[in-house]
Amino acid sequence: MDCRSRTGQTRAVNWRLRLRVTKIGSLSCWRCRGGVPVAAEVAAALNAPLDLILARKIGVPFEPELAMGAVVDGSKPLVVRNEKVIRFAGIEERDFNSLCESELAEVARRRGRYLGDRKSVDVTGMTARAASLANRK
């Protein structure tokens, strides 16, 4: 098996997963950076739907690696603000909102590119709560 690429490595992991997964209708939540190819391979191996939670940093205009907030897609997008950085950098509300809208547009573009017009997987209740708590660890 070719393990020189992320896709090849994931195929090797999937081979092992197939031996262990016996439950039908499972939901797999993964958190990874740049991991859409990996997520696609895992979903295919488990015969499970693929969905993504896309997030983008909102960087300070003159120091883009410094996060003054972030956006997360969803039926109602989530905006997280770092008020200390916003105040320290002297960012006006209209400027923050403008950058926020730009990042949400990029999230929408990527969702369309990765998933086309497929609807999001409905994740509700305790499963969503557990995935959210696990992401905080």
Q: What does this protein look like?
A:
By secondary structure, this protein is an alpha+beta fold. It has five helices and three strands, in the order H-H-E-E-E-H-H-H.
Structural class: alpha+beta
Tell me the quaternary state: single chain
Number of strands: 3
Which sequence of SSEs, written as H and E, runs from N to C? Answer: HHEEEHHH
Q: Portion of residues in helices? A: 40-55%
Q: State Rg.
A: 18 Å
Mean pLDDT metric:
74
Count, helices: 5
Number of domains: 2
**Adjacency order of strands in the biggest sheet:** 1-2-3
Q: Largest sheet, if any?
A: 3 strands, antiparallel
Shape: elongated
Unreliable stretches: 18-24
Distance separating the two termini: 33 Å
What fraction strand?
5-15%
List keywords for this structure.
alpha+beta; 2 domains; 137 residues
Q: What is this structure, in a nutshell?
A:
The chain is built from five helices and three strands; from the N terminus they run ααβββααα. It is α+β, with helices and mostly antiparallel strands and 137 residues long.
Topology:
Layout: H1 6-20, H2 36-46, E1 55-60, E2 63-72, E3 78-81, H3 83-89, H4 93-115, H5 125-136
Antiparallel strand pairs: 1-2, 2-3
